[in-house]
Amino acid sequence: MITGNKGEWSEIYALFKLLGDKQLFLGNKDIEKLEGLVYPIIKILRSENNGNFEYSIQDEIILISGNEEILKIPISEFKDKALFLLNAIKKNKERTFSIPEIEDFMQSINCFSLKASSSAKTDITIVVHDQRTNQQPTLGFSIKSQLGSPSTLLNAGKTTNFIFNIVGINLTENEIRDINSIASRSKIMDRIVQIQNKGGQFVFVKTERKIFSNNLVLIDSLLPEILSQIVFDFYSSEFSNLTDLVNKTADKNPLNFDIENEHKFYEYKIKRFLTDVALGMMPSKVWTGKYDATGGYLIVKENGDVLCYHIYNRNEFEDYLLNNTKLDTASSSRHGFGEIYEENEELYFKLNLQIRFTK
DNA sequence: CAAAGAATTTTGTACACTCG
DNA sequence: CGAGTGTACAAAATTCTTTG
After folding, report:
1. Domain co-membership, A218 together with A184
2. Looking at the DSSP assignment, which residues form a beta bridge with residue A103?
3. Element containing residue A152 per DSSP (H, E)
4. Span CA (A117) to C1' (B6), Å
5. pTM attached to this predicted model
6. How far is the CA of A93 from the C1' of B7 (A)?
7. What residues have CB less than 8 Å from A105, skipping those under 6 apart?
8. Boundary-marking domain end, from A127, A148, A169
9. Which domain holds residue A81?
10. What is the pLDDT of chain A when averaged over all its residues?
């Protein structure tokens, strides 16, 4: 019995759907088809735990090779199964579930597991034909499904805490305890307001972990500062979308860039950051700047369309990332942030960065 | 003492509950 | 309903333990 969650089933769905469509559509910043630009698919590569398999498209037939024999399956079969699978995924309510009706077909085309083997980072690799350049690039993708709940782009952890120094006031033990025990709906926000009301100001010191901050500096030497501004704004304003937060920060221009000629410093740097996160940067691992084999995302939309974003089309990819992400508040108890604490006679406060896709 | 395997901890993801 | 929050489950990483 093969079981998986919506995201995992979506990977198989994407494979079927793409083979059925025979072409790959590009997405724009609003997750709609970018008209007038499609890539005909030449073949799709998928690694299973018992080897790699190739699905190449020849007219109305899919040729499956990998082990000794070569299988031929009509395209229409993939179309049918894709449709069935989409409905099955959509109507399911369980956390993990199986779809027995589709298992025989999966076996017959050499799909034995849902997740492509864990050693391979790419979920799926596609060779397309690019009419503009007359080349046949091989593109790796990881698959993001909108059939389940929105996933995170950057996960929270102790690693993604930003440490602020509270200056301008000295709070008594009692005051600290009172503020830390604020337990309202938006407790982090309310604690910040309280501190500010008493005259405290927040000055960014550093990120909690050195590796994260060095990774950021590698991308852009001012990123820790810029992100600290954005994180602080998130916790002290009603904005959460990255676009809004970046615009707000750009207006305030806390780093005093020369904005006379309207250079979009903040937007550019944040896009860089998002791209690196999307393509392999992890807060807890030393980042070399080398993108992993997945050069982009395939998005499985609610209506079943599959759109692609790839570093190969950098501008669309960046716009998509900036326009479809927001900050959100992770569990403060789990990651240890949002409380005033004292160290060397000084007061500090941690805020956490987590980035999630909007839906 | 190194390699392999087992156990434990950490990190990543999905989702359900709650409250305005 | 949607944002905020905690938590369940899963995978990965790390540490500990055993064995040849």
Report:
1. yes
2. none
3. strand A152-154
4. 22
5. 0.84
6. 34
7. A77, A81
8. A148
9. 6-148
10. 80
